Amino acid sequence: MNKTISDIAQLAGVAKSTVSRFLNGGSVSEDTRQKIERIIKQYNYVPNTFAQSLKAKKTSIIGTVVPRLDSFATSQTLIGIDEELRSNHYQMLIANTSQDMQREIDAIYDFARQKVSGIILLAAEVTEAHLTAVEEIGIPVLLLGQQHERLHSLVHNDDQAGYEMGRYVVAKGHRQIVYIGVTEKDQAVGIHRRQGFQRAIAECGECDVTYYETSFKMSEATVTAEAVLNDNRPTMIVGATDNIALGVMKTAFSNRIRIPHELSVAGFGGYDITEMIHPALTTVKYHYSQAGKLAANHMIRQIAGEPVEKRTVLDVELIPRESVDNL
User: Fold this and answer.
1) Distances (CA, A) of 112 to 62, 133, 146, 226
2) H/E stretch holding 178
3) Nearest 5 degrees, angle CA 48-CA 54-CA 58?
4) Cα separation of 195 and 202, whole Å?
5) Which band of pLDDT confidence, cut at 50, 70 and 90, is reported for residue 200?
6) I want to staple 242 with a disulfide (CB 3.0 to 4.6 A). Which of 84, 267, 276, 320 is the partner?
7) 25 close to 10: Cβ distance less than 8 angstroms
8) Do residues 321 and 281 make contact, with C-beta atoms less than 8 angstroms apart?
9) Contact 238, 210 (CB under 8 A)
10) Are residues 257 and 229 in contact, defined by beta-carbon separation less than 8 angstroms?
11) Which residues are bridge partners to 154 per DSSP?
């Protein structure tokens, strides 16, 4: 049976509070320190840091609210957050909301009840309910991937990503273009990314672009792509995410449409799989792990009361590959 802090205290012949003080870095006599260390080593005692944090006035736990776990962007971001927190002696708790907004709000309150020191929020949309929850819990909250003037935010440069992709497509000679985006409720992907693309297209002056909307799921993107290819035959389809672009490619292959000879395809994200498939997918790479590390760093600084930029924007990188033909 695993030993408790009470067991360690009894075996060492000291008070439970003395063991607790030792475990939290407090002052104890050299003789007491040696006795406690000997007992801990003998019984391989591992302190319950979660329980310790819940009892303490200041915890070493950061809550992270994510919309989904089956996402390359989310997993890479979480890896970055975890690495940075661990290197600073913090731990991470994850709440997955499965893209349910009410579960997002509930997770904010739940984390506050668990006395986390701060919350990193990956939300597709920031509503008044989100803002009310943040105000009521009274602990630092950082918004990652979206921005809002009332919250500390860390975002990828979606407008620039869309603009660079638009310029690249035009430079490749494409004029009959389809852009498959997502709901405008997601401001980063649904609005800013598309607006950047539109800005580049407007500079061309002679492009014919048709805009469609789908979800973030590849399975639904394949259905949208089928409708697109039934309606018209563009030379280029740009998906607002790599998943959408991969859905387009799957539909094209099913319809024996050769990429890039008969149809060029591009996406956004820079997922690892986009480099492995053939033809490799042209994309705009987002530095998700770096974003996670920076978000964790900013959160730790907020907790410490240090000044943190209200809005931080991360650069993106266009990666040309084989899926776009030069007309």
Assistant:
1) 10, 10, 21, 45
2) strand 176-181
3) 110
4) 10
5) very high
6) 267
7) no
8) yes
9) no
10) yes
11) 144, 312
